[in-house]
Amino acid sequence: ILCQLSVAAALEFKYHHTKELEEYLKGVHAAYPSLTHLHSIGRSVEGRDLWVLVLGRFPSHHNIGIPEFKYVANMHGDETVGREILLHLIDFLVTSYGRDPVITRLLNNTRVHIMPTMNPDGFEATKEPDCYYTRGRYNRNGADLNRNFPDAFENNSAGIQPETRAVMDWIKNETFVLSANLHGGALVASYTFDNGNPVTGSLNGYSRSPDDDVFVHLAKTYSSNHASMYKGTGCDNRQTFPEGITNGYSWYQLEGGMQDYNYVWGQCFEITLELSCCKYPPAEQLEKFWRDNKVALIEYIKQVHLGVKGQVTDKNGNPIPNAIVEAKGRPHICPYRTNEQGEYFLLLLPGTYVINATVPGFKSMLKTVEIPDNTGNFSALKQDFSFSEVSDQIRSRVASCPKIPLYQELARTSAAVKPTLNILVLMTIMLVIFK
Predict the structure, then answer these.
(1) What architecture is domain 18-305?
(2) Is 274 a catalytic residue?
(3) How far is CA 352 from CA 40, 210, 267, 308, 319, in A?
(4) CATH code reported for the domain at 308-386
(5) pLDDT tens-digit profile of 297-342?
(6) Which residue among 174, 270, 274, 343 is the active-site one?
(7) How far is C-alpha 269 from the geometric centre of its chain's CA atoms?
């Protein structure tokens, strides 16, 4: 108990540099070893660890049926509020577990991954707090990490940085369902797509994903539970965001962003949270930022239990990895597939859906489901699929999605169809005239 009290008391509302941050995370893990798991997913250019603290009833490994959630902050080193409020979120979760029934149920049914800083080098390079742009935005190689991921719409020529590679491998090795990355410089919840083309509606200034309704809901969940984000006033009179949310492309086009990468290649719904008009505000304001975001941070985690989940198995009850499972009418350009345990997780709003499970080479299986709002029960609707004609010989079949601009092909197809249609119309008119 004394150990736990000392850890809680040690967390002040101030900026924690690398050594202090590491000491705090290690102290939390030592005080709560059965509730937390601390590990580094890689190193920065200058060799600093990229620490992740995992919280939950099964913190050290994935457990079937328990969805994986993550928060990532300080991707831009000079955007600092998220870095500190995630430390206070950790403090709140571990000290509330076993005392607060909501937090206890949340951590019993969710595995929560928290990365306080993705760009420790940039943070340490920002010597003087500044509300505006500084060189600390970039990593040690001068790269903007939120322009550094493979892009679904165009070739990203930026060389993959160590921090980016570590996060890509992390996403690949976990079954993340929902995520948010925390930034600064504005006050808004932004959602996918950040990039686009005519296929996704970019000509109309909005790049729409197949799950646009879910993304709008996720962004509104955060903004409406924030102390002021929902007002949509932005940071000056020139910039307003109705209800405190925006489609990323509608705000400004961004190539190589992390939230689009999560959605397309990670099967993880991620939004970007801009939490402060000032990128690096004075430390005395941090307590207010924590109060403003506390409820929203918790309510957003709960959304990982939206929709439907389940397992796909063969005739012997063995899991089938790489089976495609998607809701009819909303196919993903890189099909969503089951993990090694045959699990799938689909975030869907309450309503009636047809879920299509496909094992390559076999007939698809369709099931109609009525999805309730189960976020308060901390468990999505469960719907399993059993393929009685499938044997375990095909279980090791590997499927991968290429890291190429996937939406380019759709754009070409769309452009190719238009002249064909025009020619058909012209031929029809000429035929009528001739007759």
Answers:
(1) 3-Layer(aba) Sandwich (3.40)
(2) yes
(3) 41, 16, 21, 11, 26
(4) 2.60.40.1120
(5) 999 999 999 999 999 999 999 999 999 999 999 999 999 999 999 9
(6) 274
(7) 4
